[in-house]
Amino acid sequence: MAGLIWILLSACLLGCTSQVSLSGQKNVTAESGRNVTLTCRARKNIQTVEWRRADLGDEYVFLYRDGRKTLVHQHPSFKDRVDLKDKQMKDGDVSLILNNVTINDTGTYECRVVKKGTIGLKLISIIHLHVDPPGSVGLIVGVVVAAAAAALVVAAVAGFVIYRNQKKAKEVRLKPLVIKQSPAAVPTSQCCQ
Ligand SMILES: *[C@@H]1O[C@H](CO)[C@@H](O)[C@H](O)[C@H]1NC(C)=O
Ligand SMILES: *[C@@H]1O[C@H](CO)[C@@H](O)[C@H](O)[C@H]1NC(C)=O
Ligand SMILES: *[C@@H]1O[C@H](CO)[C@@H](O)[C@H](O)[C@H]1NC(C)=O
Ligand SMILES: *[C@@H]1O[C@H](CO)[C@@H](O)[C@H](O)[C@H]1NC(C)=O
């Protein structure tokens, strides 16, 4: 009987944790080298903030506990690269700034908080971050510029060819006219009568 209650209780707890009111689940794309803000808006009076990435296991991206951030169990790749956007966490803003992102920062970030006077973490937001490799934006811009330049050259050549052909055609049309207008070509019968 106790076992059954335990199972029911566990099921309820699991259900409760998955019944989160997400303020946002979103996709963020960033270029390598940028500083990215991972937004998370909770309520006021925050006691604990936990930022995790699902694939990093027990190590945190960022942890704020007992009134300060703590570096215990922080994943080494985030050392000196993360901080709260607003250190005062005004109005429950616990958004995180991740500096100088690399392709290795691609992943799913989860923000959880514990409100003062409550127990249990509450999942607030999930962010799918995708970081483009360095130079990929530059590459796209380069390709576009090259394509535009090529189009311009083609247009210029085409324009020149058309212009030349028209000029030639005009010359061809003009030549007989010139011949007709020469005094020798005017019949004497139409003159001086
Ligand atoms: C995020 O991207 C995935 C695919 O990468 C897509 O299925 C999903 O709809 C996107 N979500 C939002 C909120 O844009
Ligand atoms: C990222 O943030 C750091 C520290 O705040 C700053 O020095 C740097 O200029 C920022 N880089 C970009 C690309 O905004
Ligand atoms: C950003 O990260 C790259 C690669 O990890 C590094 O080479 C570069 O020095 C870093 N830039 C800053 C401003 O920290
Ligand atoms: C990404 O991680 C791999 C494996 O840990 C590492 O070899 C590589 O240098 C990292 N790349 C960047 C841009 O930090």
Summarize the structure in words:
Keywords: Cell membrane, Disulfide bond, Glycoprotein, Immunoglobulin domain, Membrane, Receptor, Signal, Transmembrane, Transmembrane helix. The chain is an alpha+beta fold and 193 residues long. It has 2 domains: 20-134, Immunoglobulins (Immunoglobulin-like); 138-185. The chain is built from 2 helices and 9 strands. The strands form 2 sheets. The chain has a 6-stranded mixed β-sheet, with no helix packed on it. It has a 3-stranded antiparallel β-sheet with strand order 2-7-6, with no helix packed on it. The structure holds 2-acetamido-2-deoxy-beta-D-glucopyranose (4 copies). The site of one 2-acetamido-2-deoxy-beta-D-glucopyranose has 3 residues, from loops. One 2-acetamido-2-deoxy-beta-D-glucopyranose is lined by residues 102-104.
Task: List strands and helices in order, with pairings.
Blueprint: H1 2-18, E1 24-31, E2 36-38, E3 46-53, E4 62-65, E5 68-69, E6 82-84, E7 96-98, E8 107-115, E9 122-132, H2 136-181
Parallel strand pairs: 1-9
Antiparallel strand pairs: 2-7, 3-4, 3-8, 4-5, 6-7, 8-9
The structure holds 2-acetamido-2-deoxy-beta-D-glucopyranose (4 copies).
One 2-acetamido-2-deoxy-beta-D-glucopyranose is lined by residues 33, 100, 102.
Keywords: Cell membrane, Disulfide bond, Glycoprotein, Immunoglobulin domain, Membrane, Receptor, Signal, Transmembrane, Transmembrane helix
Signal peptide: 1-18
Transmembrane segments: 137-163
